[in-house]
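Re: [help] complex structure
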Amino acid sequence: MRPDRPEAPFGRRETEVTDSHRDGGYRVFTLRDELGPEPIPGQFYMLANAPDWPATTGRPYLPRAISFARSDSGDSGITLDFIIHEVGPGTTALAGLAEGDRCWLAGPFGRPFSIPDQVKAGSHGAILVGGGIGIAPIAAFRRRLVEAGVPSRTLLGFRDVEHSGGIDDFFGCEQVGLAFEDGSRGHHGHVTDLLATMLAGDDTGGAVVYSCGPPGLLEKVRQMCAEGGVSCELALESPMACGFGACFGCAVPKPDGSYLRLCVDGAVVRGDEISSAAPGEIQ
Amino acid sequence: MRPDRPEAPFGRRETEVTDSHRDGGYRVFTLRDELGPEPIPGQFYMLANAPDWPATTGRPYLPRAISFARSDSGDSGITLDFIIHEVGPGTTALAGLAEGDRCWLAGPFGRPFSIPDQVKAGSHGAILVGGGIGIAPIAAFRRRLVEAGVPSRTLLGFRDVEHSGGIDDFFGCEQVGLAFEDGSRGHHGHVTDLLATMLAGDDTGGAVVYSCGPPGLLEKVRQMCAEGGVSCELALESPMACGFGACFGCAVPKPDGSYLRLCVDGAVVRGDEISSAAPGEIQ
Amino acid sequence: MSRLRTSLCGIELESPVLNGSGTYDALVARDVFGDPFIRQFPFAAFVSKTITLAPRVGNPPNRLWETPSGMINSIGLPNPGLDTFLERDLPRLSELPVPLVVSVMADSGEDFARLVSEVADSGRASAIELNVSCPNVHSGLIVGEQPTETEALMGILRPLTKIPLIVKLTPNVAAPEEVARAAEAGGADGISMINTLKAWAADPESGRSWLGAGTGGLSGPAVRPVALAQVRQVSSAVAIPVIGMGGITDGESAFEFIAAGATAVAVGTENFRDPAAGGRISAELERILESRELDSVEQARRSTLT
Amino acid sequence: MSRLRTSLCGIELESPVLNGSGTYDALVARDVFGDPFIRQFPFAAFVSKTITLAPRVGNPPNRLWETPSGMINSIGLPNPGLDTFLERDLPRLSELPVPLVVSVMADSGEDFARLVSEVADSGRASAIELNVSCPNVHSGLIVGEQPTETEALMGILRPLTKIPLIVKLTPNVAAPEEVARAAEAGGADGISMINTLKAWAADPESGRSWLGAGTGGLSGPAVRPVALAQVRQVSSAVAIPVIGMGGITDGESAFEFIAAGATAVAVGTENFRDPAAGGRISAELERILESRELDSVEQARRSTLT
Ligand SMILES: Cc1cc2nc3c(=O)[nH]c(=O)nc-3n(C[C@H](O)[C@H](O)[C@H](O)COP(=O)(O)OP(=O)(O)OC[C@H]3O[C@@H](n4cnc5c(N)ncnc54)[C@H](O)[C@@H]3O)c2cc1C
Ligand SMILES: Cc1cc2nc3c(=O)[nH]c(=O)nc-3n(C[C@H](O)[C@H](O)[C@H](O)COP(=O)(O)OP(=O)(O)OC[C@H]3O[C@@H](n4cnc5c(N)ncnc54)[C@H](O)[C@@H]3O)c2cc1C
Ligand SMILES: Cc1cc2nc3c(=O)[nH]c(=O)nc-3n(C[C@H](O)[C@H](O)[C@H](O)COP(=O)(O)O)c2cc1C
Ligand SMILES: Cc1cc2nc3c(=O)[nH]c(=O)nc-3n(C[C@H](O)[C@H](O)[C@H](O)COP(=O)(O)O)c2cc1C
Ligand code: FES
Ligand code: FES
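Output below.
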């Protein structure tokens, strides 16, 4: 069963950046969206600094897909927080936005996370697994579960301190399990180690696993869940040109050899809807 | 006889913007060039905000040719003033530079103005005619003539106040003849009216006319000088991709039907070296 | 918007702005954006993605690569195949508030014939666009690269229907005007151009092909100067109308295509950056016509022809 | 710079980075920049602008138009003609610190033959580049668009000299690999590609042609994806080396051409933005080879071929 999703305002719109600050290795910035509906965790927006970007050598040219990490609706519209990991020209330009700047956005787009009961009738809890910049939709979803009174436990993994951020700001008020691959904080190793321990425990029966992070992590989670008979939802990434089903560029292989369009059939998918969460790595 | 020109440092280089302010309808900004030689009035630079510009839709892509309006050499290099008229994406980007920003530059390029004696042996004075943004090289040349002890008189013309600037800053200390097409200041009409009056006077024998401005103005000046038997040098414009003779894009028709390369054979040319200063307008 | 009214192959349009085939999924957009999408429908006619006889899943990822002022795609024409299209999609597409153009492609004259006659017989398409950028399974030649193949194909298809047949040209040829002339000689009602330019990108890590299909097609503002040259060349070679596209992003670039001789224009890649680009471009174009005191697109087109 | 050492058609080069013909005037640059230009000479070999038998003044302005991530030129091959070139320019060009490639063009086999033999006989050129993007005055066909014309031309020129003959391909064809194969069959020692893509721009005021010559050629980063596709196609079709160009701006984009199969690369439009681009790109390319632990350009090229 798919959760309802709000209709996105038709077209793109200009918004104001109301805050931007560094958080660990990431940049967190906030927009005020006066026109949009409240998005549902797992959804994303297509963002650009300007209708044509302030581009270097003609790139960035297309808008970039970014998940929201927090939304609040108030008198002057929806306030949206994004967490950015700078990996190329698009994310670098977005990270350069400062208070008072404008940002162009379309969305919210995509299929959001389902609450546990929608994934598996009668399920009584959620295990959230975020890796790296994948913590963004996990943060939004965790908050939603709290509001809905659904018990959840959160596990977050990072490569090292330079590749981490947002923990205190977005998860600080709650106990989270942390794993750092370089051992600088929390468990010394992978976040999937923590998940394995948790799944091996006897109090997880019926819990649904939700994950977002790098392809390797998602595929590991997918396989662990499949083996353990645990339902899971994964928020995937893929290159996206449009975000609203127009370009067919965001293909992700399905078990039957065909492809789903991640921007409309995802970005959140059930583990059994795809043939792999890391297809590039097994090519 | 062509004046010597300094060699330009090979390649392009990064400079610092040390000031930028609005002046009437124009923007004036200052760079500190630590590597370059002192340029000669009439020369120009190729400028870009960054190696790849901060471009919108892939334009500006090429650097833009801009004359310097003032140069001062000091301990920390050459200080260069530019006056910008915003007419498109390149000039708008340059006008957006603020103190502390970086600007990339190559040059100085091109053939500069000659002093009157070089144009016509024994000539005893100069009449400077600037129109619109064409006042930039005129300002630099006027200063040089003062230093060289060559008497000069200056005539400046503008369409209206919105299309004017730099008068007080670059010419304030000296008497200049002003013409505004809308009559808002000085003579109500064209700067060539002032030139006609001056050439009709009996004290201009042997003076050389120097002009920079829109094609129509330059062609008018060229014809007036040809008719009056007065020597003139004109600083022309044309689209330029490189500024150093590499692209052959800056062709200006010569009387013999061939073309000169404006960036190396100009941008300052003698009136009789070209077939028209406004070829587009008679095509 | 009366200044924008355009007659294209006998179809009356509110504006000359269409979409490029394969660059908009109107049915999904209806779900994503809701009623405002229908009320502010961005195009004056809707061109479907290219339909083939059998269903296609499309190419393996990666399918996208961003380039300076453009992008490469190797989507591979995923589509449900003719039967499902006719049953499931066509009825819904014909409910859109604008005329429908159905794009079809096949690798033989016989398959093309089935596509054209079944789409025409449905009575729901105002025109059919023939995507000829594909090899003919018999000759091995890409139909749209060969005037003779194009004319032969038109010889098969023209007798099948009276509704307008528009031939979509590939730009990867030395002389597009020869293919256009052949299409016209074979009875085509219009030419649509340009499709994407053959392009390649290296995987930044391995140096091998980034795209799953090896090569792909370049689109966006980067190709606009090439598209304009071809539209100009073709529109002066044939009497049938040309739908110009390739890197249109705004009214100004749409106007450039009209100046080059196009009767109508189509928006492709810009839709990805701005889902409402079609309507914006129509409005911008209207303001340009107004400021130039041109009463119609047709007048604009004629005013620049020498 | 030993990692960058490249052997091209038997010529030993310090690096694989050349200039594109017509995008650098080394004699003027020597005056403008003085000795540092010679000491830091930006290219491993210098390719002259294209020389014709008779002098040419070039096309009327406008000759330039900036496009998204690129530019259109309609320069029209201004050059002093063979005689003045041999007498006045060639001696000075041969004093440059790198091997010289002379680019020539003609509209008949006879004129091409005179150009090739006189340049070869001068003893000052390490190689000759044949610019075949021009119509043959006898057949009316553009030589470089026709495999047969190209092979026939090589049949005339090949016997005239032993120095390497490099054929510069036009990209405005459906199958550049067929022209390349014909050049190879006719005895060419190398292929150089791509020349510019046919392009047009409207005068923003009148809507008519902006360029004095009507149409022009597109270059710069906008064309890079097209150039890469063609270089890849050609280099897998012929055994002779390919000099790849089209939108190279940095070491990374130069590396992409090598990944696509090029033995050497050439920098064109980027020279206009950065007069020292050639040297910068060589240095950047060396760092890329280093970080990938590749000992040579040749090894890089082979490592990405599947
Ligand atoms: C649904 C969704 C949600 C996302 N949420 C977030 C988020 O909350 N925060 C966040 O920081 N990121 C998020 N991302 C990822 C983000 O969209 C990408 O990191 C971004 O698009 C990269 O753009 P760039 O210009 O910075 O980097 P690019 O230069 O585009 O490089 C990123 C990667 O793309 C590939 N690449 C390189 N060059 C090109 C090219 N020319 N064309 C195409 N691909 C290229 C390479 O594999 C490279 O590693 C999300 C992605 C999706 C699909
Ligand atoms: C030697 C020299 C010295 C100069 N000195 C100065 C100076 O001191 N101050 C100053 O403000 N300016 C100066 N200029 C003019 C300045 O270089 C141009 O105004 C600038 O290049 C315009 O760039 P743009 O991007 O702002 O405008 P563009 O968009 O490039 O438009 C400017 C004009 O160029 C044409 N044009 C429009 N689009 C294009 C396109 N895509 N490609 C090519 N042409 C196009 C049109 O005719 C338009 O009116 C000088 C020019 C030269 C040659
Ligand atoms: C993602 C994508 C998918 C496309 N699919 C099709 C298609 O199915 N059929 C077709 O005829 N053209 C297709 N095209 C080509 C476009 O219709 C158009 O001809 C081309 O992109 C140039 O226009 P643009 O630069 O505005 O995008 C596609 C283009 C893109 C970018
Ligand atoms: C201004 C200009 C002039 C050119 N002149 C010539 C020429 O004379 N002969 C030639 O073979 N190619 C000529 N070319 C093509 C270039 O050598 C090169 O093939 C093309 O520009 C693609 O490379 P780029 O994108 O790096 O510029 C010229 C290109 C430009 C931009
Ligand atoms: S991103 Fe365009 S269809 Fe999914
Ligand atoms: S601007 Fe390039 S030669 Fe003059």
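Chain D touches chain B through 45 residues (CB under 8 Å).
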